[in-house]
């Protein structure tokens, strides 16, 4: 179920062959130009910095500069579509689908996380599907829910130029197990506990609350198990044509722990390391595919700041 991850050196070499004028429109995760949240938004900038030190799926970001001024009904200009498809062809060479996600300029910061406010599109394959997914992702920036979220937090909500947005395109990991972990306990607010939750398949079932995941409470060192609760994992999200869908988990897998203790420790160590690097408690999303742990997202636990 694993997928090929494009090596950094190969990606840099191939991206260098894109037209120079496209460099401000498209930047690669892991390169310095992608680290600036003013250009690539909080989510992509954070992942780009993490990609220098952790296993993060390869991807690229369509910058807010390139998208500034585009308003509903969203249609990418031809020059930008060409740049996007040039970058996509490099990723598509691995034969893995991609995920398309928002990365708003005021996203995943200390004051607001924007988790779930904008649309995410999974298992996107093909040039036409990619352009359509990018356009729909941009449309969600103007949804009543997104605008209301910004107004409630005092963020800008006027013209598109005032509240710019970037779009992240990443190789999608064919997750055997998806994980959400917290470097501090968000329920009890204890800073000496790490919480690891996991379930089969893609992460949407956990994030969406449609499954009771397995849960482990681990001490801050990541070495000692404080509590283990194995959930009755009845549903799982899998990739399907044009996106994803929920299916029943085979009965034999429902009561089986989705992670081994060694994997729980690896996730706990990752969460603790990320807290140490960022300086604040973090909420991370990650996945195991073919036995390898991939970091998919890292953001502050805003309730503990």
Brief sketch in words of this structure:
By secondary structure, this protein is of the alpha+beta class.
How far the N terminus sits from the C terminus, by CA atoms, comes to 37 Å
Helix content: 25-40%
With helices defined by DSSP (H or I, 4 residues minimum), what is the helix count? Answer: 9
Oligomer category: single chain
- Mean pLDDT value: 84
> What is Rg?
19 Å
Element order: H for helix, E for strand = HEHEHHEEHHEEEHEEEEHHEE
Largest sheet: 6 strands, antiparallel
Number of strands: 13
The low-confidence runs, each spanning 5 or more residues with pLDDT under 50, are 1-23, 108-114
Shape: globular
Q: Which structural class fits the helix and strand makeup?
A: alpha+beta
Strand content bin: 25-35%
Strand order of the largest sheet: 9-8-7-6-12-13
């Amino acid at each position: 179920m694993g997928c090929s991850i494009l090596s950094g050196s190969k990606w840099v070499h191939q991206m260098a062959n894109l037209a120079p004028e496209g460099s401000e429109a498209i930047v690669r995760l892991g390169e310095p130009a992608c680290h600036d949240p003013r250009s690539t938004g909080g989510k992509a900038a954070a992942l780009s910095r993490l990609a220098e030190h952790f296993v993060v799926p390869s991807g690229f970001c369509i910058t807010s500069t390139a998208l500034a001024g585009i308003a509903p009904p969203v249609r990418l200009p031809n020059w930008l579509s060409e740049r996007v498809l040039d970058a996509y062809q490099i990723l598509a060479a691995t034969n893995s689908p991609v995920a398309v996600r928002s990365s708003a300029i005021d996203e995943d910061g200390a004051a607001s996380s924007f988790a779930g406010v904008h649309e995410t599109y999974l298992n996107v394959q093909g040039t036409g599907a990619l352009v359509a997914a990018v356009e729909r992702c941009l449309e969600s920036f103007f949804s009543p829910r997104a605008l209301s979220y910004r107004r409630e937090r005092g963020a800008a909500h006027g013209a598109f130029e005032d509240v710019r947005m970037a779009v992240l395109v990443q190789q999608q990991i064919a997750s055997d197990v998806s994980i959400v972990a917290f470097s501090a306990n968000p329920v009890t607010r204890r800073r000496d506990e790490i919480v690891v939750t996991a379930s089969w398949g893609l992460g949407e079932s956990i994030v969406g609350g449609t499954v009771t995941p397995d849960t482990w409470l681990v001490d801050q060192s990541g070495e000692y198990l404080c509590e283990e609760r194995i959930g009755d994992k009845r549903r799982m999200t899998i990739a399907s044509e044009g996106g994803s869908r929920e299916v029943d988990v085979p009965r034999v897998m429902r009561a089986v722990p989705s992670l081994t203790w060694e994997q729980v420790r690896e996730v706990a160590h990752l969460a603790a390391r990320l807290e140490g690097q960022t300086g604040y408690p973090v909420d991370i999303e990650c996945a195991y595919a073919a036995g390898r742990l991939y970091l998919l997202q890292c953001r502050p636990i805003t309730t503990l700041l």
